Amino acid sequence: MAVIPDINKTEKWLIETTLKEGYGETRPYQLADAEIRLQSAERSRHVADSTRALLPAWQRRQKQNTFNQ
């Protein structure tokens, strides 16, 4: 399984800024482990061919988050 490097300071700033602009306030978020497939052709392959990555996750209140539509 391939591993994508952890999120760096610049990427954390981007997540925080995007959430603040989208909600008009600072929003708490967590980084969650996820196994993802990067190519649609991998759909028929076994999960062992997936990639490990950290993804941001947060709870929405009024507005939908654009990452999970």
Automatic annotation (TrEMBL):
Record domain Death: where: 27-69
Superkingdom: Bacteria
Gene Ontology biological process terms, A to Z: signal transduction
Alphabetical list of PROSITE patterns matching this protein: DEATH_DOMAIN (PS50017)
Annotated InterPro entries: Death_dom
Protein name, per record: Death domain-containing protein
Organism from which the protein derives: Solemya elarraichensis gill symbiont
